Amino acid sequence: MEHPPSPISRVRRTVRQAHLWLGLGIGALFALLGLTGSMLVFYTGIDAVLHPAISQVEAAPPPALDAPAWDRALATGRARWRDPAGKWTLEITGDGGTIPARYYPMPGHHADRMMVWFSADGARIVRAEPWGGYLMSWIYQLHMQLLAGDIGHQIVGWSGIAMLVLLITGLVAWWPRASWQKAFAFKRGAPPIRRLRDLHKLMGLWSLAALIVLVATGVFLALPAVTQALLSPAAVPASRSAGGASSSITVATALTSAQRALPDGRIVFVDIPTASEEPIRVRAQVPGDPHRRFPGSYVFVDQHSGRVLAVHDVRRAGTGSLIVSWIRPLHDGSVGGLPGRILAMLIGLAPAFLFATGLRRWRHRRAARRASL
């Protein structure tokens, strides 16, 4: 007489089914996001290799904050793009060579931005391409929003939550009831379908913790409203320059003012506004901020007087802001330096492997069931 399955067995069977159908439903998307994410870990370096004109610029020491190169680059860009409503962002890499910049014909519309690289002295444009119009930026958009704008952001974010469930159900389905040694084993002499199962199992276990971190941080990046609701980071000040003045300070003046306001900060971006009442915004990395390229501290400088209007120091902005500052560097692996980025790149390959092995095993078992009928 057969005994009915125990409640635990029924739960495990349900979890396995959930894992199977989630894998079949979103596995291909998970693989796509993983592969594109792997490529983006080193996307600036790959992009430079693909565009030799950037690397062929004569090597020169990075310009100082008070150097004329910043204002010369701005003037060169404005001579090329004459839209008075256009907004400019200059990047201070500290590496020398070209000066990367972004030009927004319509402020706030990231999809319309032009990526520009100036010569080291700011006197000429080395390269200019629309965002999304060259390979690495296209891959970036595919990864972040599936080339579908705001709707794509929502799809990526909410499907990321389903991916977390997929990972957790995989762990529950694997959890051993008896021998842990057997649960971690790989049977070399077993039939191919069993070896495939072991490969899927071991890859999932090896990459599980890192995948959970990458997926969870990806959800926060794709769904900023959810991030705001859960973590409540401090709002960045909304400062305004004094109106009525006709002249503006130089970019170099704004940079030196910002440096005085955050003397231990490393300046990485400066946003030059369009409207006369908007301040110049300078972005900086302070000690303890884990992201080198996109840190969370800002200095707002009056574009007419050079007076510092407000400082947003992530170290003093509360726990929520501190947690948010870790999301991007955990997602791209930069928190661990070069080893961390290499690990993030390798982990990004795991979803494709898991999807391929899981799909092949499912098809093999389905074919075996049909053959037995």
Number of helices: 13
Structural class: alpha+beta
Beta-strand percentage? 5-15%
Rg, Cα atoms, Å: 25 Å
Arrangement of strands in the largest sheet:
4-3-2-1-5-6-7-8
State the share of residues found in helices, binned by percent.
Answer: 40-55%
Helix-strand string? HHHHEEEEHHHHHHEEEEHHH
Organism: Sphingomonas jejuensis
Transmembrane segments: 20-43, 155-175, 202-223, 338-359
Protein name: Iron-regulated membrane protein
Keywords: Membrane, Transmembrane, Transmembrane helix
Keywords:
eight-stranded antiparallel sheet; alpha+beta
Task: Describe, in short, the structure shown.
Keywords: Membrane, Transmembrane, Transmembrane helix. With 373 residues, the protein is α+β, with helices and mostly antiparallel strands. The protein has helices at residues 7-40, 43-50, 52-55, 69-80, 135-145, 149-174, 180-183, 192-222, 224-231, 251-261, 319-332, 337-347, 350-372; strands spanning 87-91, 99-104, 114-118, 125-130, 266-272, 280-285, 297-301, 308-312.
Description:
This is Iron-regulated membrane protein. The chain crosses the membrane at residues 20-43, 155-175, 202-223, 338-359. Keywords: Membrane, Transmembrane, Transmembrane helix. InterPro entries: PepSY-ass_TM (IPR005625). There is one protein chain. The protein has 373 residues and is an alpha+beta fold. It is built from 13 helices and eight strands. Among the domains are: 8-41 and 141-231 and 335-372; 52-133, no CATH class. It has helices spanning 7-40, 43-50, 52-55, 69-80, 135-145, 149-174, 180-183, 192-222, 224-231, 251-261, 319-332, 337-347, 350-372; strands at 87-91, 99-104, 114-118, 125-130, 266-272, 280-285, 297-301, 308-312. Helix 6 (149-174) packs across helix 8 (192-222). The longest helix has 34 residues, at 7-40. The protein is elongated and about 85 Å long.
